Amino acid sequence: MFSKATEYALRATIYIAQHTTEDSKCRIDDIARGIDAPVSFTAKILQALRKDEKVINSISGPNGGFYITDKCRKKPVRAILDAMGEGEVLEKCVLGLKKCSNTSPCPMHSDYKEIKKKLLRLFEDRTIQDLADDKGMFLKLGKK
Amino acid sequence: MFSKATEYALRATIYIAQHTTEDSKCRIDDIARGIDAPVSFTAKILQALRKDEKVINSISGPNGGFYITDKCRKKPVRAILDAMGEGEVLEKCVLGLKKCSNTSPCPMHSDYKEIKKKLLRLFEDRTIQDLADDKGMFLKLGKK
DNA sequence: ATAATTCAGGACAATTTTGTCCTGAATAGA
DNA sequence: TCTATTCAGGACAAAATTGTCCTGAATTAT
């Protein structure tokens, strides 16, 4: 569904929302270990999340690291996708047709439209904090 | 959602189902033009669809080309995904977690599960022929 | 001021995906 | 049989994605 980079971004954001406050931040290597992702690649992804769309924050130096503000916690999960440049995935045609639309539908359009609508709602209604709160019985972000 | 190769595969299969019978086949370059895909890359994809899982057929020589049998027309659209090695896409975790399951769910699992179920149904219930039959008002497979 | 810690950001490398090209095999018709 | 047509399949190339590494800047404490 999403690129690896975006999967890591989703996991990292959840991790950060679960493990930090504005006072107690966490370092890249903790995050990377916590989500089973390569450290340097994670660094690059966290930079993207920190940029304009600003999903997370960071500060350098001792006791520095990444954290997420209360304001950002309230953002929809979709903000992560947008920051990674994959927001469009939720809207494009299954067959990859540029001009597929209600007035010019591909053979899968009408059925797939309903699914996209649900997907969009999933990513737009739920906030980052919602995901962090949802600590099910097992909530291991790692592979194992 | 899917790779470009798989998008082309879906488009190509629909194209073939709409434009050929076992008597009148069509050539790679017609197919490629009809679905707005590069010719040589399309050739490679059509080979994959022709292989074991056999979604389509072909014969060489003059008046040769690609076609699809009645039997293959009845296969679910999912057969195309499987032939392209992307069947798994419909089942994996949004966060990319290997061990995400009902007993060990990620924070998106329960919501996303319902969407995957609908996606699966979409690709398993509808046949290739269904797609070929669905000639809406506008059914242009090309980009424009 | 200096040293230690931690992120920022760019250059680089590996891998995968996407795409091209060429030779050979199969088929049909003259 | 000979030629023209069309697919088969592998080698190769380009581009995108994924991943690594290094230098520098910011911050903290001494």
Overview of this structure, please?
Two copies of one chain form a homodimer. The first copy, chain A, is mainly alpha-helical. The first copy, chain A, has a single domain, classed as Winged helix-like DNA-binding domain superfamily/Winged helix DNA-binding domain (Arc Repressor Mutant, subunit A). Helices cover 48% and strands 4% of the residues of chain A. The first copy, chain A, contains seven helices and two strands, in the order H-H-H-E-E-H-H-H-H. Chain A has helices at 4-19, 28-35, 39-50, 70-73, 78-83, 109-125, 128-133; strands spanning 57-59, 65-67. Chain A has a two-stranded antiparallel ribbon. The model of chain A has no long low-confidence stretch (mean pLDDT 92). Chains A and B meet through helix 1, helix 6 and helix 7 of A and helix 1, helix 6 and helix 7 of B. The structure holds a DNA duplex (30 and 30 nucleotides).
Q: What's the β-strand tally of chain A?
A: 2
Per CATH, the architecture of chain A is Orthogonal Bundle
- Characterize the biggest β-sheet of chain A: 2 strands, antiparallel
Helix percentage range of chain A: 40-55%
Radius of gyration of chain A: 17 Å
- Per DSSP, what share of the residues of chain A sits in E-state strands of 2 or more residues? under 5%
What is the average of the pLDDT values of chain A? 92
Determine the number of helices of chain A (DSSP H or I, runs of at least 4 residues): 7
As an assembly, this protein is homodimer
Q: Between the first and last Cα atoms of chain A, what is the distance in angstroms?
A: 21 Å
Structural class of chain A: mainly alpha
Biggest interface reads: A-B, 46 and 46 residues
Shape of chain A: elongated
